[in-house]
Automatic annotation (TrEMBL):
<protein>
    <submittedName>
        <fullName>MerR family transcriptional regulator</fullName>
    </submittedName>
</protein>
<dbReference type="InterPro" id="IPR009061">
    <property type="entry name" value="DNA-bd_dom_put_sf"/>
</dbReference>
<dbReference type="InterPro" id="IPR047057">
    <property type="entry name" value="MerR_fam"/>
</dbReference>
<dbReference type="Pfam" id="PF13411">
    <property type="entry name" value="MerR_1"/>
</dbReference>
<dbReference type="InterPro" id="IPR000551">
    <property type="entry name" value="MerR-type_HTH_dom"/>
</dbReference>
<feature type="domain" description="HTH merR-type">
    <location>
        <begin position="1"/>
        <end position="70"/>
    </location>
</feature>
<keyword id="KW-0238">DNA-binding</keyword>
Length: 120
């Protein structure tokens, strides 16, 4: 796949894909065609989709880089990768709980205004 095709499939820009490569976030740099253009595999696209989910859940670039470094080192790092993801999961769950609390306050205030305005 070309960089444009991967960008379309992942929702990232070509600029971001190049940044991810420079930042060491990919398992391995994509192969280059005879014209020097990047050629991505389905495995590359799957990895990039994982990165987008990790980023969307708040993982830092440093955390993503650490995960990629571990993945490049192979099967010996399964336990370390799992530990990193478990720590990230705990952070995400904490954020979800905070968001639930924040949402409850917003809903409370909406109900207050409903009562003040006679909507309920």
């Amino acid at each position: 796949m070309t960089i444009a095709q991967v960008a379309e499939r992942t929702g990232l820009t070509a600029h971001t894909l190049r940044y991810y490569e420079r930042a060491g976030l990919l398992r391995e740099p994509p192969d280059r065609g005879g014209n020097g253009h990047r050629r991505y595999t389905e495995r590359d696209a799957d990895w990039i989709r994982l990165l987008t989910r990790l980023r969307a859940t708040g993982m830092s670039i440093a955390g993503m880089r650490r995960y990629a470094e571990l993945a490049r080192r192979g099967e010996d790092t399964y336990a370390a990768r799992k530990e990193l993801l478990e720590a990230h999961r705990a952070e995400v769950l904490g954020k979800i709980e905070q968001l639930k609390d924040d949402l409850a306050l917003v809903e409370y205030k909406i109900n207050v205004y409903d009562k003040l305005m006679g909507d309920s």
